[in-house]
Amino acid sequence: MFGKIAEILGMKRGDELLEPLDLSILKTDVHSHFIPGIDDGAQTMEDSLTLIKGMEAFGYKKVVTTPHVMSDYYRNTPEIILKGRDDVQEALEKDGIQVEIEAAAEYYLDVDLMPKVKSKELLTFGDNYVLFELPFMSEPPGLADLVFEMQLAGYKPVLAHPERYAFWHMSFEKYQEWFDKGVILQLNINSITGHYSPEVKKVSKQLIDAGLIQLLGSDCHHDRHLGLMEHAIQHAPLHQLVKSGALLNDRL
Ligand SMILES: [Fe+2]
Predict the structure, then answer these.
(1) How far is the CA of 162 from the centre of ligand 1 (A)?
(2) How far is the CA of 31 from the centre of ligand 1 (A)?
(3) For the CA atoms of the chain, what is the radius of gyration?
């Protein structure tokens, strides 16, 4: 029995499961795809409401939703995203759902990102935070320049799910380097379950132990992610992180 479930959840013997964590301690989630029909997250308003109700049940009071902005697939502009946010807000109010929704974006590092940084047209949350993600294949050569230009423009770069970039799994010192350069590292909650891969899970634990994670995000796209989160919140490293005081979520 343990074997099959463990295999599905990417667990090893010795992985300790605790009482489910009450995420109200975090207050705010910083990474999700809840605006209907503009990326690979919620497709209808009904999806959006179901997902946000799920977040409320975990204890969240606020979600910063972050639709993909990607030249090849999702050409979302601030206008599209903010209009979508207003529509979701209105639907939440009609449904009596108390969760507050704010919108930013998850910017993919491609050729169109640097011009947007320089013209300061990025959507931010909190203290001028900008969520961005990298290609999964290899470390992009323009990363250092991008981080520099973001900081020059007054943005605080937040790297989405650093634990998922396999090209850094064998060079853990890279995480410390980006952290030291002022890049805020945002861990995905479900990474701790082994959902993405056993390596992602291992690196997640290492990042938590090293004190390098400052934001925690659901990266929720659909209800399967919510289901996985029910398991994730029983994992000891996540408890350790949430109780460490290192996270900025509750200040947003
Ligand atoms: Fe995402």
Answers:
(1) 12
(2) 6
(3) 17
